[in-house]
Amino acid sequence: MKKINIIVAEDHEFFRKGLIMVLNEIDFINVAGEASNGKELIDLLKTTAADIILTDIKMPVMDGIEATKIIKTLYPDIKVIVLSLHGDEEYLRKMIEIGVHGFILKNTNKEGLERALNFVKEGKQYFSEEFLPSFTKKYLPNSSNNVEVILTKRELEILQQVSLGLKNKDIAENFFISIKTVINHRTNIMSKTGTNNTASLVRYAFENKLVKL
C-alpha cells in the first residue's frame, strides 16, 4: 500500500508527540513533519510534501482557520482534517466553508483516526460521530415532517451507506448491484422522506433514527 504523507500542526507538544506515535503505528501513514502553529505549518509546506494535514484550530501566531485558508489557496490538492475538542462546534461552519475534509475529536482512538484517514484519502469527508448531531441540526436544511415513512430493508441498508459518506459506486460494489439500481433506490428514498439532496437526507436519517452511528 502506498503511504500517504501527513503533517501534524498542534501547539501542545505532549499531545502532538503522542498523536505522531499513534500515526506511526498505521501502516499506510508517513509522518512527514510537524508544526506548533499555523505559521510554522505554512513555512514547512514550502519544503515538505503532504497529502493530508491534521491541524488544531486554536494555535498561537496563526490559528488553524487562517492556516487552512492559505493552504486551500496555495495547495488545493492537500486535504485538511481538523483536530478538535468538545465545545469547538462554533468553528465547524467556518472550517466547512473553507473546504476541510474532516473534523475529529482529539480523544479519537487509533481505530477512529485510521478510519478518518481512510475516508479522507479516498476523497470523502469524515466527521466524528459526536459532531453529527450538531452538524445536522445547525448546518443542514430542515427536512423533518410528520408523515410516517416506511422504507424497505434494502432502502435502509443503502441509506446507512449514504449516511456514512459512501459514493454510489462504493454502495453498488458492497451490495453487488448496479450503480443505476443504487441511484433508483436513492431516488425512492428521497421521494419517501421528502428530501431533495444528500445533506437533507442524511439529516432526516439521523433525526428519525433510521441509521446507526
Low-confidence stretches: 139-148
SS content category: alpha/beta
Helix content: 40-55%
> Strand order within the widest sheet?
2-1-3-4-5-6
- What is the CATH top level name of the largest domain? Alpha Beta
Total count of strands: 6
| Element pattern in H and E | EHEHEHEHEHEHHHHH
Question: What is the rounded distance between the termini?
Answer: 28 Å
CATH architecture of the largest domain: 3-Layer(aba) Sandwich
User: The CATH topology of the largest domain is what?
Assistant: Rossmann fold
Domains (count)? 2
Report the sheet-strand fraction.
Answer: 5-15%
Q: Count of helical segments?
A: 10
Mean pLDDT: 85
Describe the 3D structure.
With 213 residues, this protein is α/β, with parallel strands linked by helices. It folds into 2 domains: 4-135, Response regulator (Rossmann fold, 3-Layer(aba) Sandwich); 153-207, Arc Repressor Mutant, subunit A (Orthogonal Bundle), CATH 1.10.10. 47% of the residues lie in helices and 14% in strands. The protein has 10 helices and 6 strands; from the N terminus they run βαβαβαβαβαβααααα. The chain has helices at 13-23, 38-45, 64-74, 92-98, 110-121, 132-139, 153-163, 168-175, 179-193, 198-207; strands spanning 4-9, 29-35, 52-56, 79-84, 102-105, 126-127. The chain has a 6-stranded parallel sheet, sandwiched between helices. α2 runs parallel beside α3. It starts with a strand and ends in a 6-residue tail after the last helix.
Summarize the structure.
The chain is built from 10 helices and 6 strands. The protein has 213 residues and is α/β, with parallel strands linked by helices.
